[in-house]
């Protein structure tokens, strides 16, 4: 028999949740333990979105199950010669994947610079979070591994 709630069961002194501490949260993909709790470190709000943007760019189409079109195809472009023309193709691919698959951000600027001496590209992405209007920036290098 199901139990019903009586007025005597209500705890009027119990704290109520009135607001959220964070809008977005995700666990860190570095799997670093939190120094105090030992749990996996949690990323919140802008740091969570930064990680998502970087992961989306580094995902190849067909890599995720049940989402065959998700991804940027950046890895395929890394096997092209390191030239400013390939940097423009990378910039276009990054902008396109963020506009199509990351609804939480508005892309402000994407800059891809070729570093032909080290066979890699420098990527700088500036974006604005739609819900909070905070701006963020992600800087990283992409390079061919094999």
Question: Can you characterise this structure?
Answer:
The chain has 146 residues and is α+β, with helices and mostly antiparallel strands. The protein has a domain at 49-146: Nuclear Transport Factor 2, Chain: A, CATH 3.10.450.40. 24% of the residues lie in helices and 25% in strands. It contains three helices and five strands. It has helices spanning 46-58, 74-77, 84-101; strands at 25-27, 42-44, 105-115, 120-129, 135-143. The strands form two sheets. Strands 3-4-5 form a three-stranded antiparallel β-sheet. Strands 1-2 form a two-stranded antiparallel sheet. It is globular, with a radius of gyration of 21 Å. The mean pLDDT is 84.
Secondary structure blueprint with pairings:
Layout: E1 25-27, E2 42-44, H1 46-58, H2 74-77, H3 84-101, E3 105-115, E4 120-129, E5 135-143
Antiparallel strand pairs: 1-2, 3-4, 4-5
- Compressed to H and E, one letter per element, the order equals EEHHHEEE
Structural class based on helices, strands and sheet pairing: alpha+beta
Distance between the termini: 64 Å
- Mean pLDDT, to the nearest integer, reads 84
CATH architecture of the domain at 49-146: Roll
Oligomer: single chain
List the strand order in the largest sheet: 3-4-5
Task: Please name the CATH topology of the domain at 49-146.
Answer: Nuclear Transport Factor 2, Chain: A
Largest beta sheet, briefly? 3 strands, antiparallel
CATH class categorisation of the domain at 49-146: Alpha Beta
Estimated radius of gyration = 21 Å
Please state the overall shape, judged from the principal axes of the Cα atoms.
globular
**Which percent band covers the strand fraction?**
15-25%
Please count the helical segments: 3
Helix share, percent = 10-25%
Number of E strands: 5
List the uncertain runs: none
């Amino acid at each position: 028999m199901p139990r019903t709630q009586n007025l005597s069961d209500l705890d009027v002194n119990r704290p109520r949740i009135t607001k959220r501490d964070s809008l977005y949260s995700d666990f860190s993909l570095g799997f670093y333990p939190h120094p105090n709790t030992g749990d996996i470190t949690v990323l919140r709000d802008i740091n969570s979105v930064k990680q998502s943007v970087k992961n989306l760019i580094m995902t190849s189409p067909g890599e995720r199950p049940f989402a065959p079109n998700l991804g940027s195809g950046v890895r395929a472009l890394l096997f092209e010669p390191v030239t400013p023309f390939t940097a423009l193709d990378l910039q276009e691919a990054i902008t396109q994947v963020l506009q199509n698959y990351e609804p939480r951000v508005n892309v402000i600027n994407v800059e891809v610079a070729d570093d032909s001496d080290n066979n890699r590209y420098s990527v700088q992405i500036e974006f604005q979070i739609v819900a909070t209007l905070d701006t963020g920036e992600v800087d990283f290098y992409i390079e061919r591994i094999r």
